[in-house]
Design a protein that fits this description.
The chain is α+β, with helices and mostly antiparallel strands. The protein is built from six helices and 17 strands.
Length: 241
């Protein structure tokens, strides 16, 4: 090894998500879809498309790979007094996309499996940034902002359209919607992402949240589900000192 090839700082290990039945999934990137349920778009003060022809283009943002949390304890973040939950279906890519634009028909073959996750949001910071016309990355891409349950291979999950996504906080149902209410489904989102990024194995796509987003407090417990197929259990702990 030459002197020029020696790392000058330690290399961080990739973030890994457990796979139900064994193994782990190393995370490369996290893409997120905004306003992908019409009821949530209206909840956030945006217009919802009346038909597929009116959809326009999806809203995308990103989180760092190390925002993933696989433990049961999720720390309440710094710099906010208004942490919100957003329950989401998560698609995990097990293959690289071919060069160029990915067709909708070919997109499903890239998916290794699915999980449920939370897109945690510092809503007060997001609102302040929006009011000034500024980017709101700090509201979404903070440490421990992406709790996620175990991945399940796509073949075991089966058809998504008839399944229902839900979140309970302290046992109370906060969010629920059938996945056929997605404005853009998984293959369509992968097609749109491929116009902007080179999709690779290890990528996660958080698919957007239904209406019912609300505040979380330290001590709250969350149970996210896709019927009885996917699940996530976590607890919001006190902020780090």
């Amino acid at each position: 090894m030459t002197e020029s090839s020696v790392d000058v700082v330690p290399v961080a290990a990739p973030t890994r998500v457990p796979v139900r039945g064994g193994g782990t999934f190393p995370v490369r990137r996290i893409y997120c879809v905004g306003r992908n349920f019409a009821d949530h778009a209206r909840e956030m003060g945006a217009e919802a498309p009346a038909s597929k022809a009116d959809r326009g283009t999806p809203v995308f943002f990103a989180k760092p790979a190390d925002a993933i949390v696989v433990s049961a304890d999720v720390p309440y973040p710094t710099a906010t007094r208004d942490l919100h939950h957003e329950v989401e279906l998560v698609a995990a890519l097990g293959r690289d996309a071919p060069p160029g634009e990915l067709s909708v028909d070919d997109a499903a073959a890239l998916v290794y499996g699915y999980a449920v996750g939370l897109d945690l949001t510092r809503r007060d910071l997001q609102a302040a940034a929006k009011a000034k016309g500024l980017p709101w990355d700090i509201a979404k891409g903070f440490d421990a902002s992406a709790p996620i349950g175990a991945l399940v291979p796509a073949a075991e999950v089966g058809e998504l359209a008839g399944r229902t996504l839900s979140l309970r906080v302290n046992g109370e149902l906060r969010q629920t919607s059938p996945l056929d209410q997605l404005i853009w489904d998984v293959p369509e989102i992968l097609h749109e992402l491929s116009k902007l990024f080179a999709l690779r194995a290890g990528d996660l796509v958080f698919m957007g949240t239904p209406a019912g987003v609300a505040a979380l407090l330290p001590g709250d417990t969350c149970e996210a589900r896709l019927d009885d197929v996917l699940e996530l259990h976590c607890r919001i702990t006190s902020p780090p000192l």
